[in-house]
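lol ok so funny story. i was supposed to be doing the assay writeup but got distracted and ended up predicting the structure for this chain instead. priorities right. anyway since i did it might as well share w the group, maybe its usefull for someone
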Amino acid sequence: MSLRFNPREVNAPAMRAMMALEQHVGGRSKDKVLEELVKIRISQLNGCAFCLDMHSKDLLKLGDYQEKIIMVSVWHEAPVFTARERAVLELAEAVTLISQGGVKQELYAKVREHFSEEEFVDWIMAINAINSWNRIAISSGMYPGFQF
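and the output, tada:
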């Protein structure tokens, strides 16, 4: 794989805007482990090797989460995830694949069992941010190990 272009070099203002969103989202999260799991799962769905590599490594820096990294692609069947984690992972998939069914009322209610409306918006913003990063990385040809 080869880099097509470095987004930061060819359009610094656009990347500063993306970084502002990322800083906002990261500053809102109270659960860094779940935030990284969401980033990993969405990166799997979108096929973004750069982001999958980066966020798997970021999660490992937070502790011994190797089992969760391995099992996140099959979180539906894996007993290592809590009901809270499952709700957000389901939301992440629904928003990422929104054209396939949207976000059903049942899912909204499931997420709200664990999070306030404000936190629901925070999760939506975090999900949108990693989806955007995936699209930037894939479109520009970023690959694991590339220094952004």
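The CA atoms of residues 71 and 79 lie 9 Å apart. The chain has eight helices and no strands.
back to the writeup now i swear
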